[in-house]
Amino acid sequence: MPDTATMEAIVSLCKRRGFIFPASEIYGGLNGFWDYGPLGTALKNNVRDAWWHDMVDCPPDGPDGQPVSIVGLDSSIIQNPRVWEASGHVGGFNDPMVDCRESKARYRADHLGFLGRKGDTTGQFFAFVSGDDSSMSKARKKLEKYVKAKLSDDDLDFCGIESMTTARLAITVGPDAKEAGTLTEPRQFNLMFKTYVGALQDEDAAAYLRPETAQGIFLNFKNVCDTSRVRVPFGIAQIGKAFRNEVTPRNFIFRSREFEQMELEFFCHGDDAPKWYEFWCETRKNWWGTIGVKNDNLLLRSHDSDELAHYAKDGCGTFDVEYRFPFTAPGYGELEGVAHRSNYDLSQHAQHAGAKLEYFDQERNERYLPHVIEPSAGLSRGVLAVLCEAYTEDPDRPSGVYMKFHPRVAPIKAGIFPLVNKDGLPEIASAIHRELRGKYRLEYDPKQSIGKRYARMDEAGTPFCFTVDAGTLETGNLTVRHRDTLAQESVNKDQVGNFLEDQLG
């Protein structure tokens, strides 16, 4: 597992090998937006497809030992704007922000901490970003330089934005500023992207890009019930893009303004919600191991009361599946949330739309609005976790590093090489590639030395490399190199397909 300093190396490798590029880079980029290159697209699609297979095509067995019923959906990115009024996003999806007039940086007000000398009413305060040790250390050094003294913890006055009066802000130096008084008072910002539907751009045509994929599922709950042979308990799954006008996009693709979600809304009777909540918490935490994320780097953490979302009611809660990212180590960052949303969303839409969304349960002879358990994973963050987990430094290799992807999500499953680009070897290697490329994503590479080709495949995270050499002409055997162990063994050219099937499933 890489340390914090290695994050720069991961970002560099992603750019150099075509995993992830800054969006519109030739124009200077756009903060919070990223493009996926050839390898990154394949990796992201493999993570997405693994989630869809395990959640929809072949869902897990539930608490009763029977397969869970889950169907798929693909809803529109732009919905009627009244949807977001009903969901609480228009009124509640606002974060107080603080701007710095000097650095032009913007901070969430609740993410700022303030440091001063205890009892000093005429000196200066220094702001820092909460949870960022380097930012707090920087603020402390600035304060000690200002007072010209070394300060102990007992000498310090720590406070949050709620304690910062206008007078105090006037003597505060921002996290990235040199002068005092450059921070504004907190102001409300809507995190939703606003757009217009139709040719006229006026308020009657205003709409929003969805900030989450969940609402499209709730809107279609009755449609799915009426058109599919589903009965509560069942789930509706969706993978799609969402947009949030994040104030401070950071940490590569961890927090961006355009991202993808893999969401399940699981509908159940309110009495059964606790057992399904527990089931999905454990199921989703364990799933990440099936694509190569080690359990040692995962944490299941319950939200504190002050973290709960607006839809949380009494008895409801949220667990986060967190991953030890390099930039959070030794702490963790959110990878996926499992929330008990109660029946908040269905009741809100039933009220605001005047629609009948109750479900009639024949077995219970009861009509009710189901409760919802929501496992919601970030596909973009999932890709980042897989990249961080796979990054492995090895000074004994030509490239000095290899990506230890689980074969299930590896962008390229195998490389097919002729040892030299002559003597009939390229024809054999090319024939193997053509035969198997319909089943696996393979790369045929006849150029440069075999060492350089191995190095390219190591950086791409390719699990196996097959090399056709002079011996293949005589015996029909070629050499397969295992990425992780560097072990080599002989396989007959007619058995390469069987070998990959055994190894990859």
Q: What can you tell me about this protein's structure?
A:
With 505 residues, the protein is α+β, with helices and mostly antiparallel strands. The protein folds into three domains: 4-75 and 213-389, BirA Bifunctional Protein, domain 2 (2-Layer Sandwich), CATH 3.30.930; 94-189, no CATH class; 412-504, Anticodon-binding domain (Rossmann fold). It is built from 15 helices and 27 strands. A hairpin with a 7-residue loop joins strand 21 and strand 22. Helix 2 (38-57) packs across helix 11. The longest helix has 20 residues, at 38-57.
Largest sheet: 7 strands, mixed
Report the mean per-residue pLDDT as an integer: 92
CA-based gyration radius: 27 Å
* CATH superfamily membership of the largest domain: Bira Bifunctional Protein, Domain 2
Neighbour order of strands in the largest sheet = 3-13-14-20-17-16-15
Concise synopsis of the structure shown:
Helices cover 29% and strands 26% of the residues. By secondary structure, the protein is an alpha+beta fold. The protein has 3 domains: 249 residues, BirA Bifunctional Protein, domain 2 (2-Layer Sandwich); 96 residues, no CATH class; 93 residues, Rossmann fold (3-Layer(aba) Sandwich).
